[in-house]
Amino acid sequence: MPVPIFLVDAFADGPFTGNPAGVCLLEAPADEGWMARVAGEMNQAETAFLVPREDAEFDLRWFTPAVEVDLCGHATLASAHVLWSTGTLASERDVRFHTKSGVLTAKPKGDWIELDFPSDPPVPATSPNGMLAALGSESAEVLRGRFDFLVAVSQAATVRELKPQFDSLGGIDARGVIVTASSDDPRFDFVSRFFAPRSGVPEDHATGSAHCTLAPYWMQRLGRNPMNAFQASPRGGWLQTEVAGDRVLLRGKAFTVLEGAIA
């Protein structure tokens, strides 16, 4: 029986912006090898696989073309969008996702979707040998969250102009490296980019889970909450963040660009 699959641009300002994610609607749990092959075929930063539980609850797993990951924001946003836009779930219903990072929720907020994710405040860390050189940034504040290194630089222009050495970054013992600075654009509070070659994603376009680290970092330094964030990837990523205790609320928009079925 054909399996419905979608391509959705998440944390986007319109179609063909933000971060594309595959979303696969399953009727029952699937073999891990099959999901990995589907993710490889989709060849997006992540493909989400949803299995219904009861009412408005779903099991959710995420795969890059190379590995399964424990937390992914943009593919979660895309999953909620698909459930509502296809009528699988009524558009006013909140969604609860059961994942490797606990229960995550998604709520409709007009044209936006709000995700409730665990906060991941970074702590000061020693820079791994070669990391700053691979980024092309010699002077920076280095911190570490649960998944990623956070590198804070002094100028937003530095973030935009980075040309990382991905082979070298792939040797860093972390899911990825976030580079960030306060924004020079009055529409945003901070900017960032995210590199994860070790996970099979050289540069991610709009990374919700990275903002679980960025939001508490910038709230402390800027004294602002909520905040507007821009991920300065080639496609761009538009997010709103709000720290709420030990949680971070991530808000963004999503647009379906392709619908199909796996034969």
> What's the CATH C level of the largest domain?
Alpha Beta
The fraction of residues assigned to DSSP E strands is: 35-45%
Structural category: alpha+beta
CATH-defined architecture of the largest domain: Roll
Pattern of helices and strands: EEHEEEHEEEEHEEHHEEEHEEEE
The counted number of beta strands is 18
Count up the helices: 6
Tell me the Rg in angstroms: 18 Å
Query: What's the pLDDT, averaged over the residues?
Result: 96
CATH H-tier superfamily of the largest domain: Diaminopimelate Epimerase, Chain A, domain 1
Q: Any idea of the CATH topology of the largest domain?
A: Diaminopimelate Epimerase, Chain A, domain 1
* Proportion in helices: 10-25%
Number of domains: 2
Question: What is the straight-line distance between the termini?
Answer: 7 Å
Q: Outline, from the CA principal axes?
A: globular
Please describe what this structure looks like.
This protein is α+β, with helices and mostly antiparallel strands and 263 residues long. It has 2 domains: 3-119 and 250-262, Diaminopimelate Epimerase, Chain A, domain 1 (Roll); 123-233, Diaminopimelate Epimerase, Chain A, domain 1 (Roll), CATH 3.10.310.10. Helix content is 19%, strand content 41%. The protein has helices spanning 32-42, 74-85, 131-135, 156-161, 166-169, 211-222, and strands spanning 3-10, 19-25, 46-52, 57-63, 68-69, 95-99, 102-109, 112-118, 123-124, 141-144, 148-152, 176-182, 190-196, 201-204, 227-231, 237-244, 247-252, 254-262. It has an 18-stranded mixed beta sheet that branches. It is globular, with a radius of gyration of 18 Å.
